[in-house]
Design brief:
heterodimer, A: mainly alpha, MetI-like fold, 2 domains, globular, B: alpha/beta, Rossmann fold, 8-stranded mixed beta sheet
Chain lengths: 327, 349
C-alpha cells in the first residue's frame, strides 16, 4: 500500500508539471499583458510616460520574453517555494493566496461534510421507503435543489434573511470583529456571515448525491447477499447500514475526488455575490488581468487538489471495498 | 389420513403438527404479488410437511412457486401471504409456532432465521457480501444466535469451515468472497447456514450455478452434513437428477400447487400425475435409442396474471378429460394402496 501511495505521489508531481506548463501557455495566449493595463493606467493618471520607463517595466516583468522562459522563471522558483510576485498588486502570490485559501477550504469542507451528512441518510430513507409520499417529497425537493442555480438561491436567501432579520450582508466579519481575537462572539458573527454560502454550496451537491445514493442502494438491495443477511436473522437496520450502504457508497466516495476542487472553484459566483474573500473571485481576476504568476499558481493548486482528492478517494475506496485493494 | 391436508383449505382438524416427526407443516399457503400489471397468485394453497431428518425435494418449472414457498417459510418473500399456516417446531421441543402469525421482521422471526431455519441460495457468486471476510460473515450469525464471545465465535466459524471441507480454514476465514471460486463460496454459504445447527435448511437450487463436478461435491457434502447434524432439508431444484441423488421424498409443483407428493422411488418408478410423467420423459437418459426425439411438454406455463379454471395443467395435459378437468379443481388424494403417495388429478379419483 505504501508503495502504491509513493508511486501515486511521484506520478502526481510529473502530472502537475505538465498541467502547469499547459495552463501557463493557455493563460498567456490572449494578446496584451498585465503591463499594457498598467501603462494605460499610469498614462491616464500622469499623462505621458517616457519610453525608457516603459522599457524598464517591461524588463522588470519580463513580458517580452517568450512564454517558456517566463514559465521557467516562475516554475523554477516555485519549486523552491517562491511563487513570485503578483503583477497587479506587487504582493507576494503566496500571501494573496494563503489568506484566502483557508477560508475557501473551510467553506468547502464544511459544505462537503454537510452534503454527506444530509445526502446519505436521506438517500437511504428514500430508497428504503420507495414510492411512499416522503420519497416523492424528497424527490421533488431534490429536483428543486438541482435546478435552482446557486447564485439565484444565494440572492434569494440573502434578501429574505436581511428582510426578516438582521442578516449581515457581505464579508466574513462585522467591522467590530474584523481584527478582534477569536472568541465565541466572533465565531457566531462568522457563522452568521457564511451560513448562506455553506447552504447554497451544499444544496446542489446534496440533491445530486442523494439521488445517486438512492439509485445505488435500490440496486444493492436487490442483491442476493442482502437476502443472505436477512436470512441470517439480522435486524433490518443492520442489513441496511452494514451490508447495503457500504456497497452502495462507492460513487459518493469517488465523487470526493472531483468534488474537492469543484467546491473550491464552484463557490466563485456565490462568493462574488456574497462578497466573500475566497479563492474563486481572486482566480477570476487573475485570469482577466493576465496576472500570470498568480493565475498559474492557483491553477496548479487546483490541479493538485484534484489529484489529492482522487488519491484520498482511492484510498477510502480501498478501505470500503476489499475488491479494489491491491495485494 | 395422516400427513395430508385437504386441498380445499380446511386443514386436517385439530392439528398443531399432526405427526411428531414433522419439523415443518405448511397448510393451504396462499401468496400473492400485487403488481402494477395486476395480481399474481403465486401460491394457491400449498400444503406439505417436512419430516425430521429427511430431505424433501421440491421440483417444478420456473415460476411454479417453489422458491416462493421456501422464502415464505423464512418470511422473506416480497409477496403477501394471504392465507394458510406454516407450523414450525424446533428440534426436541413440543412448542409449535405459526410462522405466518409472526411479525415479518420482528424479534421472534429473526430468532428463527439463521438459527432454526436457514437458507442457501442459487447464486454463490453473489450471495456473500463482497465487503466482509467469509469468516466475519459466518461469525455474524454465530454471534447473533449462539454466543457473545468473539473468540469463541471465530473458533466455531473456523470449525464449520473445516467441516465443509475447506482446505486451510483459517486462511479461508480471512479471505474475501471474491478471492474464492464458486464452489468454495457455496461451501462457505453452507457453512454459514449450518453454523447454528438449524432444524431446517432450505436450499434453493444450491448447485444450479455450479459445474457438474463441483455440483457432485456439494451434494455429497450436504448429504454427509445432513446425516451428521440431522437437519431436515427442503431442496428446491428443477433438476431431476439431483433429486434422485439427494432426496428422500419429492413434491412436484405446478402453478402454485403441489400436484404430486411421494417417496423418491415412487416418483421415479411409478409417477402418477401426467405432469410428473412428462417432466420425467423430458430428461435425456443414457441407454435410450439414438435419434429418438426427447419429449417436451407441449404448450407453456400460462400467463401468471390469469387464472386457469379447473386443473391448472389441463391446457397442456395429454390425458385431460373434457368437461371435468377444465371445470373442477381435483383434490389431493392418496394413490390407491399407498399411505405416502398423493396426487392431485382426476385420473386417480
Amino acid at each position: 500500500m505504501l508503495n502504491f501511495i509513493a508511486r501515486r505521489l511521484v506520478n502526481m508531481f510529473f502530472l502537475l508539471i505538465v498541467v502547469s506548463f499547459v495552463g501557463f501557455w493557455i493563460i498567456q495566449l490572449p494578446p496584451g499583458s498585465i503591463l499594457d493595463v498598467q501603462i494605460q493606467r499610469l498614462r491616464m493618471q500622469g499623462g505621458n510616460l517616457p519610453e525608457s520607463m516603459i522599457q524598464a517595466l517591461r524588463d522588470r516583468y519580463g513580458v517580452d520574453d517568450p512564454f517558456y522562459i517566463q514559465y521557467w522563471k516562475w516554475i523554477s522558483r516555485s519549486l523552491q517555494g517562491d511563487f513570485g510576485t503578483s503583477f497587479e498588486t506587487d504582493q507576494k502570490v503566496a500571501e494573496r493566496i494563503y489568506n484566502r485559501l483557508g477560508i475557501s477550504f473551510g467553506l468547502s469542507l464544511t459544505a462537503l461534510l454537510f452534503t454527506w451528512l444530509v445526502a446519505i441518510p436521506i438517500g437511504v430513507y428514500s430508497a428504503t421507503h420507495r414510492y411512499s409520499w416522503p420519497d416523492y417529497l424528497i424527490t421533488f425537493v431534490q429536483f428543486l435543489g438541482l435546478s435552482i442555480p446557486g447564485f439565484l438561491l444565494a440572492l434569494i436567501l440573502l434578501i429574505t434573511a436581511s428582510r426578516l432579520w438582521d442578516q449581515p450582508i457581505g464579508g466574513l466579519f462585522s467591522p467590530q470583529y474584523a481584527d478582534a481575537p477569536w472568541s465565541l462572539a466572533k465565531l457566531w458573527d462568522f457563522i452568521r456571515h457564511v451560513w448562506i454560502a455553506i447552504v447554497v454550496l451544499a444544496i446542489g451537491a446534496t440533491a445530486g448525491l442523494t439521488r445517486v445514493m438512492r439509485a445505488n442502494l435500490l440496486d444493492v438491495l436487490n442483491m442476493q447477499y442482502i437476502q443472505t443477511a436477512r436470512a441470517k436473522g439480522l435486524k433490518e437496520s443492520t442489513v441496511i447500514w452494514k451490508h447495503a450502504v457500504r456497497n452502495a457508497i462507492h460513487p459518493l466516495v469517488m465523487s470526493l475526488g472531483t468534488l474537492l476542487p469543484a467546491l473550491v472553484v464552484g463557490e466563485t459566483l456565490i462568493a462574488i455575490i456574497l462578497s466573500l474573500p475566497t479563492i474563486g473571485p481572486l482566480y477570476l481576476d487573475a485570469l482577466r488581468s493576465q496576472d500570470m504568476y498568480l493565475a498559474g499558481t492557483i491553477l496548479v493548486m487546483l490541479s493538485a487538489l484534484l489529484l489529492v482528492g482522487n488519491l484520498i478517494a482511492d484510498l477510502l475506496l480501498a478501505w470500503v471495498d476489499p475488491r479494489v485493494r491491491l495485494e | 389420513m395422516t400427513n395430508v391436508a385437504t386441498g380445499t383449505g380446511t386443514a386436517a382438524t385439530g392439528t398443531q403438527i399432526v405427526s411428531e416427526d414433522d419439523v415443518v407443516r405448511v397448510e393451504d399457503l396462499r401468496l400473492s404479488f400485487y403488481t402494477t400489471l395486476g395480481v399474481v397468485r403465486a401460491l394457491n394453497g400449498v400444503s406439505f410437511n417436512i419430516p425430521r431428518g429427511k430431505v424433501l425435494g421440491v421440483v417444478g418449472e420456473s415460476g411454479c412457486g417453489k422458491s416462493q414457498t421456501g422464502l415464505s417459510i423464512m418470511q422473506l418473500t416480497p409477496g403477501r401471504i394471504e392465507g394458510g399456516r406454516i407450523l414450525f417446531r424446533e428440534f426436541n421441543t413440543s412448542e409449535v409456532v405459526d410462522i405466518t402469525k409472526l411479525e415479518k421482521n420482528g424479534p421472534e422471526m429473526r430468532k428463527i432465521r439463521g438459527n432454526h431455519i436457514s437458507m442457501i441460495f442459487q447464486e454463490p457468486m453473489t450471495s456473500l457480501n463482497p465487503c466482509y471476510t467469509v469468516g466475519y460473515q459466518i461469525e455474524e450469525a454465530i454471534l447473533l444466535h449462539q454466543t457473545q464471545d468473539k473468540a469463541e465465535a471465530r473458533r466455531r466459524a473456523v470449525d464449520i469451515l473445516r467441516k465443509v471441507g475447506m482446505p486451510n480454514p483459517e486462511r479461508i476465514a480471512d479471505s474475501y468472497p471474491h478471492q474464492l471460486s464458486g464452489g468454495m463460496r457455496q461451501r462457505a454459504m453452507i457453512a454459514m447456514a449450518l453454523s447454528c445447527t438449524p432444524t431446517l435448511l432450505i436450499a434453493d437450487e444450491p448447485t444450479t450455478a455450479l459445474d457438474v463436478t463441483t455440483e457432485a461435491q456439494i451434494l455429497d457434502l450436504m448429504r454427509d452434513l445432513q446425516n451428521e447434524i440431522g437437519t431436515s432439508i427442503m431442496f428446491i431444484t428443477h433438476n431431476m437428477g439431483v433429486v434422485a441423488q439427494m432426496c428422500d421424498e419429492v413434491a412436484v409443483m405446478y402453478l402454485g400447487r403441489i400436484i404430486e407428493r411421494a417417496a423418491v422411488d415412487d416418483i421415479f418408478y411409478d409417477p402418477k400425475h401426467p405432469y410428473t410423467i412428462s417432466l420425467l420423459r423430458s430428461i435425456p437418459r443414457l441407454g435410450v435409442a439414438r435419434g429418438q426425439k426427447l419429449e417436451s411438454i407441449k404448450g407453456t406455463v400460462p400467463d401468471p396474471y390469469s387464472t386457469v379454471p379447473g386443473c391448472p395443467f389441463h391446457p397442456r395435459c395429454p390425458a385431460a378429460i373434457p368437461g371435468l378437468c377444465d371445470a373442477v379443481m381435483p383434490d389431493e388424494t392418496f394413490v390407491a394402496g399407498s399411505r405416502t403417495h398423493t396426487v392431485r388429478c382426476h385420473l386417480y379419483t
